[in-house]
Design a protein that fits this description.
This protein is an alpha/beta fold and 266 residues long. It has helices spanning 7-19, 25-35, 39-50, 55-59, 82-93, 111-119, 132-142, 185-188, 204-213, 232-241; strands at 61-64, 67-70, 101-105, 124-129, 147-150, 165-170, 217-227, 244-251, 256-263.
């Protein structure tokens, strides 16, 4: 059972978090207190958070699309803004007749794939990531709902998926290399650089994803890529330069940007 603390004690926890720079100190204090089994465990969790570790890695989970996604230390933490990508992928998968085939590239903990599995019935689901720790985490989150493969983008996928994918989702890293040092310490120090660094302009991995997507998409299939709001137009141009009709979408609520592409037919 979680430790029972007075409301005053919870206020003290929040004060320590606020002093450490945590913007949502009260909410975090409530979550830490609820998760702690003993006062000693609470002190340990609080100490790690004050030291800069991501809250989700301390708790062992992140909330995403109404689900609790297991997050292990050192694994990229799913952001709430990525719910915009997931919701668009879900909507498109539901339009597919029969059993849709979906792939989550650069899946990290498997949050988008898990949201798809939860929301779309009859889904044939695959996920892939280059980071072994992320793959282990994604397998925990998907269970029997889908297959998770380790490898570099499409090289990780079963070859018989070529030409069969109805919904291809990629939350590829899109932070420019030069901006990594300006990220919050909890991201740049405690999440894998490969999950953040998108090259000089942040779009190197996106280019690779879009360039090879034609080989994997089924006729009428969709490619969805999350990007930074300031990069939205350039990501759309990458799609268009690879013979995709591109639709750029932005959510002001989540400050999230996604490009959805369909192959242009000659």
């Amino acid at each position: 059972m979680p430790v029972q603390l007075s409301s005053h004690a919870q206020v003290l926890v929040a004060e320590r978090l606020r002093a450490a720079g945590c913007v949502f100190a009260e909410d975090e204090a409530q979550l830490l207190v609820a998760a702690a089994l003993t006062p000693a465990a609470l002190e340990d969790m609080l100490g790690r958070r004050v030291a800069g570790l991501p809250l989700e890695q301390i708790l062992g989970w992140a909330e995403f699309c109404g689900l609790r996604i297991a997050v292990e230390p050192g694994v990229f933490v799913p952001r709430r803004r990525t719910e915009f990508l997931a919701s668009k992928a879900i909507d498109l998968a539901r339009l597919v007749d029969g059993s849709p085939v979906a792939v989550d590239l650069c899946c990290g903990s498997g949050a988008v794939a898990a949201a798809l599995a939860d929301a779309v019935s009859g889904l044939e689901l695959y996920a892939a990531d280059i980071d072994p720790a992320a793959v282990r985490c994604a397998r925990r989150n998907l269970g029997t709902a889908g297959q998770v493969h380790e490898g570099d983008l499409y090289a990780a996928l079963p070859i018989d998926l070529r030409g069969r994918v109805d919904v291809l989702v990629a939350n590829a890293p899109y932070v420019p290399t030069g901006a990594i040092g300006m990220m919050p310490p909890e991201a740049r120090l405690h999440e894998p650089r490969a999950a953040l660094d998108g090259g000089t302009d942040g779009l190197d991995i996106q280019r690779r994803v879009v360039d090879a997507a034609h080989e994997w998409l089924a006729p009428g299939g969709y490619l969805l890529v999350e990007t930074g709001p300031s990069q939205l137009n350039e990501t759309a141009r990458i799609f268009e330069g690879n013979s995709f009709a591109a639709q750029a979408a932005y959510s002001a609520e989540l400050d999230a940007a996604v490009v959805v592409g369909t192959i242009l037919r000659k």
